[in-house]
Every structure is written in C-alpha cells, then in structure tokens.
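Sync notes, pocket subgroup
Present: LS, DG
LS reminded everyone that the earlier model was apo-only. Rerun requested with pyridoxal-5'-phosphate included. Inputs:
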Amino acid sequence: MTAASTSFSTSDAPSAGVPIDDLALPHVARLHAYTPGLQPDEPGWIKLNTNECPYPPSPRAAEAVRRELGADGASLRLYPSPASAALREAIAAHHGHGLRAENVCVGNGSDDVLNLLVRAFCSPEAALSFTVPSYSLYPVLVAIQDGRAEEIGFERTMRLPVEKIAASPARAFILTSPNAPTGVAFGRAEIERVLAAWHGLLVVDEAYAPFAREDAVPLLARYPNLVVTRTLSKAHALAGIRVGYALAHPATIAILDRVRDSYNVSRLSQAAALAAIGDTAYYDGIIAKIKRTRDRHLALFGQGSNEACKMENEACRNTPGAAAPHYPLSIHHSSSAGETGAFGWFTYPSQANFIFTEPRDARGKTGPAVAAAAYEHLRANKILVRYFPGHPLTASFLRISVGTDAEMAAVHQSLQAWQTNA
Ligand SMILES: Cc1ncc(COP(=O)(O)O)c(C=O)c1O
C-alpha cells in the first residue's frame, strides 16, 4: 500500500492501551526537551533570536562543499573521516599554544561535544554543575543522562561565584564565557582562580569567545583538567553545517572519543569547516564589524544607565589589558544608521554577539510584563529576538543578537515606537 492510496497516518492511530510512556525509561518519559529559538519558514523576518552571524561564511567554505560534492555527488557514497582527522589538525594549528590534533575532538555542533562531556562525566552519582542563568541546554543534557545537576546561581551583578564553585562536590563544571544570555565574560585571570581552587573537570563553553577580549585557550597547556568548547555556528557563520569542537588534554579527548558516534560529522561539514578555519583574514573582518555594531548599540541601549556603567568599568578594572569601557560618560553619536537617541536601559556589558537589555516603558517601569510587551511588539513587526521568562534574572530582559547595521537600526526604531506608546 502506498502512502498516496490511504488517508491513514500513524499519528491518527489510537495510542490508548499501548503504554509508550511506561515503556520509555522513567527519566526520559519525564523529560522536557530543550526549546530552541524559533526558526520561521516564511521570509521577511529580521531574525535576531539565535545569535547567528548576519554575514555569509567565508566564500571558501561554500566552494569546499561544492568541490566535495563534485559533479555527481559520488563522494557521498563513502563515510566521512571518523575522527574528522584533517579538521582536528587544522583546528589545533589555528589555535596554536602548542595544541596538536590529539588535543581536539570535533562534534556535530558544540551541542554534540557538550553532550559527549555529560555522557562521559555525569551520572545519578556524579553531579555536573553549571551557573544559572546560562545556556539552558545543560540541564536538559543532564536530564537525558538521568544525571545529577548542581546549579550555582548568579546574582544580578553576574560576578563569577568562585568560592561557590570551589566548594562544589561536582565532578565537572560548565562555565559559559562569555555567558549566555547576558554576554558577560570572565577574564582569564578569573578562570585561573577557579582552576587553582577546584580540581574537577572545568569546561569553559566559549561559543562566543571570538567576540571577547580574552579566552581560556592559553591555559590548556598548564591545566589538564580544563576543557574549552568552541563552535563554528556563531562567528564563523556556519550554524547550518553543525560543527563544534573541544580542546583539552589528550586523556580527556580519548574519553570523549570513546563515547562519540563513529561518524559524527558529515563529509560536507568537515569540508566546509576545514576551509573556514583556514580563512582567518575573512573572519577577522566580520568579527570586527560585528563588534563595532555591538559596541555602538550597547552604548545606545545602555547610555545613561549608571548600573551598567559601573559594571563595565569594574569589568575593565578586573581584566588586565582590557580595552576602554563601553560606556563613556558622554557619547557623541551620529545617527547615520537611522537611530535617534539612547534608551538608557540597564544593559549588561556584552562581549558576545548579542545584547541583553532591560526594556523600560514610557513611565520608566521595568519587569517581566514590560519585557514581554516589548518582545511582542517586535514580533508583531516581524523582528524576532529572544525572551527568557523562566528565571527572575532574565524575565525582565530581551536578548537581541547583533545583526547588520540596518537590522539593528530597525530594532532601535521599533523599540522607540513601542516605548513612546507603551
Ligand atoms: C553558550 C552556547 N554554547 C553552545 C551553543 C551551541 O552551539 P552549536 O550550534 O555549536 O551546537 C550555543 C548555541 O546557541 C550557546 O549559546
């Protein structure tokens, strides 16, 4: 019987009497899946909700995919390199600091790499710890594993709770730097304070590090319990190919390889990633552009917010060699992109490719209802940003991925219209 010859669909079949949820493992039956940002199918959206890059990837990446595919796609008959061998070499060479291929494990996005870490280091007895709020996938990965999660809460300052981490009985700890969704980064010296005080496996999720002042990669040579994870989905504009990787001591990489799917990265993805990693000049250019747009809009959103000003200045003081603060006391802004005026909303000093800001309505009110209204207004105007109502430290904020100058001008104008009428 062909599909066309019947209107029956498996989703119409009655499930009563077949206890699927009872057959599934209890922790899986209880599981709430990760909620990704909306990926609308129809065109016309300004999409600033999943921190993708607003610019295309290196032309070399598309060319490498075409080359790998060839005229007839014949290479697709064959499995890819199981260990993504050439890519491991290239990634190690790209980072330097004495790293070699045996310090690299490549995954189907950094989500895959994080999943491997949870699979290898977390169980009902062995806790995995992470700060909250942060990337909301971590607790889901732990729950899939029926593992024990230990959450360490931030306060509104988003200062790194080094003492709490040092006292953690967990086997592994994931620190997101720059953090999501705040964009607040932790300096190398701060990460080293954690490493000096704590001897579990410290995983620094550096998905957004290409936009930050510092990263933890130079520490790998001295700390065998450090893992750094990276992705090509953000700064490299390759979210569609799903490539991420871990950098770590060879003993940790060998563990990850034991629990990894044999062919976890496709041929086309390996080819694209290899070409992209080699095109440093191209990516330096777009990263610099994104940072310029970010810094201009950080100032526009945050100018006049004393709280933000104080935090940024403090962050700079704590970061040796840091650039000048993002919040000068007065800013001479030329509204070439069409924005007029600053909001003066509390905005965290982001070192990522997104801005986390606390909208204020016309009467100066902030809070979850105000943030939800601003989100809905943007959405009604076909601008997608991210709203996280589930945590008190995020519920009054919006996370806006840094887009092109034109996209950011549209956000600014739309929020100005909202604020005037709110
Ligand atoms: C902090 C953080 N880590 C990891 C990821 C996952 O990236 P990938 O696309 O490589 O799976 C994201 C994606 O948004 C993220 O925000």
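DG: The radius of gyration is 23 Å.
LS: The chain is about 35% helix and 10% strand.
Action: DG to write up.
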